[in-house]
Fold this protein.
Amino acid sequence: MTIELHAWPTPNGYKISIALEELGLPYRAIPVDIGRGDQFKPDFLKLSPNNRMPAIVDPDGPGGAPISLFESGAILIYLAEKTGRLLPSDPQGRYQAIQWLMWQMGGFGPMLGQAHHFRLYAPERIPYAVDRYTNEAGRLYRVLDKRLGEAEFLAGEYSIADIAVFPWSRGAERQGVDLAELPNVRRWFEAIDARPAVRKGLELLKEHVRTGPLDDKARDVMFGKSQFERR
């Protein structure tokens, strides 16, 4: 049965489309235009009460009953457990993958998102914020580089941990990071980027990929007071 993927072409959306392509699960992408406020619509909030995408609806959930899930990390774990793939079966490997997935969810994604915001999207340049998050982005990439100097992939074998981290690393230059200075990350990045399922997953809603700067309305919807007024 076809999984509904409610998403937008961003790093968090790509995590799920890549995983679905890697696992060969049929899915239908339903756009959630975060620049127009689709994430605040009542129907989407029923799936994702935190008004963040992605979310999925699997009509063939546990026990054959439908299930909806939000939070990309939870979705990745669910898909891996549903198929028995992309999550090591041995306890040591499993927790290795889960800890690096949590590292991405708690640090690598949020901090890089802040670097993106203050370096590219903030209506005024705040030097302290730019330096703070650019430096933190660099620190996190060095943590990643150290781990990838110890193992080919984050959990030893390719897993949902790599799938979670990879889409965010595609923006390294915009985060103030040069992958040429991180040879282990660069080797890992190129290996994942060359995977056919990854290339296919990155086509998620490609007709909606933003190529220009945010306009004032989209900035207000995504980052401004309107997101609080809509609650």
Observations:
- The chain has a mean pLDDT of 93.
